[in-house]
Design brief:
Order of helices and strands: EHEEEEHEHEHEHEHEHEHEHEHEEHHH
Radius of gyration: 22 Å
Helix content: 25-40%
Pfam families: Glyco_trans_1_4, Glyco_transf_4
CATH superfamily of the largest domain: Glycogen Phosphorylase B
Keywords: Transferase
CATH topology of the largest domain: Rossmann fold
Shape: elongated
CATH architecture of the largest domain: 3-Layer(aba) Sandwich
Number of strands: 15
Organism: Novosphingobium subterraneum
GO molecular function: glycosyltransferase activity
Strand order of the largest sheet: 3-2-1-6-7-8-9
InterPro entries: Glyco_trans_4-like_N, Glycosyltransferase_grp1
Strand content: 15-25%
Largest sheet: 7 strands, parallel
Length: about 400
């Protein structure tokens, strides 16, 4: 019978400060979104704990923000029709040599692309533990581009990918349950999301900034926050606003964000105020200056924008879908509405527009809920999962 390996002889450390992590991402910093900002925060936390991390992802000349950690560029090309995004091509010989030199203890893949598939094969061949983080519901994207027929095919491909990993982390329990129901994997931990309370807080509200956009102090603002792409539910948002207009409900719409669907959205909402991209404290000011956030998207696995609004004491009307379901307490801190139910969305918005007391009560409840989300505690959960997988792999080897 094989003897258990001592820590000194084991290829796997038991201490986070000695851990080497190879992280694969399809978009680490070239376009800013909630997923890659979470990954950068995770890497920053790991580095502060003494771990060594190398990130393998597409690189561009002018990224949206500076990468946290050591970023190694992988071959990629711009996606046709969505050139702001890049498609990773291959685990090239150069990358393989770099991986061999780095000798990671654990491989973390964050999107089911070609390079991540190859990285999983590379790790499995070396009997290294593999963790996959799930950041978005890729299979749902196709319904927004008249390709709903592709959804089950994509889901099957994702299932094959995720079941080759040792474990998954999902941003919310609601998303974890979706993954279990889809039979993606059965070892699923929660890697939630945090909120920067120095940026997102009620005191960031600015009537002066609203006035600079032509919004009166007594006008009730329905806000949209996010990248302007169709999969964020822009059609449902605009159709719901149309309902309010037809009912004579006075309001203003404030759109914060940029993206390829900007012109379409602006044409659908000609009276809306488009504030463009906002970052850092400017973003906190923009969110806190809303009176209600409307988030009809069903593609998020967590809903960073929902949490940010809650931290600013802004009630949320959201689709009852993964992410928001784990954040919003219906009829307590906001409303959860059946996805795509335009009339119900409009009615929930009307109640908030016309009842300042309701906005205040639900906003305060949302802020209280947001206090549960600390970035360090949340990122330690991922580190704990790394170490658990390392222990399991070490025992598996020792028993052979």
């Amino acid at each position: 019978m094989a003897q258990p390996m001592s820590e000194a002889n084991s290829p796997f450390p038991t201490d986070l400060s000695k851990l080497r992590v190879a992280l694969f991402s399809g978009n680490y910093n070239y376009v800013r979104d909630g997923a890659n900002q979470a990954l950068n925060r995770l890497v920053g936390y790991l580095l502060r704990q003494g771990a060594d991390v190398r990130i393998y992802a597409p690189k561009v000349d002018e990224p949206a923000f500076e990468a946290t950690g050591t970023l190694i560029g992988v071959p990629s090309f711009a996606i046709p029709g969505r050139p702001e995004y890049r498609f990773p091509l291959a685990l090239s010989p150069r990358i393989r040599r770099d991986l061999a030199t780095f000798a990671p203890h654990v491989v973390h893949v964050s999107s089911p692309d070609v390079v991540a598939h190859r990285a999983v094969s590379w790790a499995r061949h070396r009997r290294l533990p593999i963790l996959a983080s799930v950041h978005t519901r890729f299979e749902t994207y196709f319904r927004y581009y008249n390709m709903a027929w592709a959804e089950p095919v994509v889901e099957a491909l994702m299932r094959r990918f995720y079941r080759r990993c040792d474990a998954l982390v999902a941003p919310s329990e609601s998303m974890a349950q979706v993954l279990r129901d889809q039979r993606m994997n059965y070892d699923i931990d929660i890697w939630s999301r945090g909120v920067d309370r120095e940026i997102f807080h009620p005191g960031a509200r600015s009537l002066e900034w609203r006035r600079s956009l032509g919004i009166g102090d007594d006008e009730v603002v329905i806000g949209f926050l996010g990248r302007l792409v169709m999969e964020k539910g822009l059609d449902v948002f605009s159709d719901s606003v149309d309902q309010l207009v037809r009912k004579g409900v006075k309001h203003r719409v404030l759109v914060v964000g940029e993206g390829p669907a900007h012109d379409w959205f602006a044409a659908r909402l000609p009276d809306a105020v488009f504030a463009g991209f906002q970052g850092g404290h400017d973003l906190g000011r923009a969110v806190a200056s809303m009176d209600v956030l409307f988030n009809p998207s069903v593609t998020e696995t967590f809903g960073n924008v929902t949490l940010e609004a809650m931290a600013c004491r802004v009630p949320v009307v959201a689709a009852a879908a993964t992410g928001s379901q784990s954040l919003v307490d219906d009829n307590v801190s906001g409303r959860l509405i059946t996805p795509g139910a335009v009339r119900q969305f409009a009615e929930a918005l009307r109640c908030y527009v016309e009842d300042a007391g309701l906005r205040a009560r639900h906003g305060m409840a949302g802020e209280e809920r947001s206090l549960d989300f600390s970035w360090d505690r949340i990122n330690q959960a991922v580190a704990d999962t790394y170490l658990r997988l390392v222990r399991q792999k070490s025992k598996s080897r020792a028993g052979q």
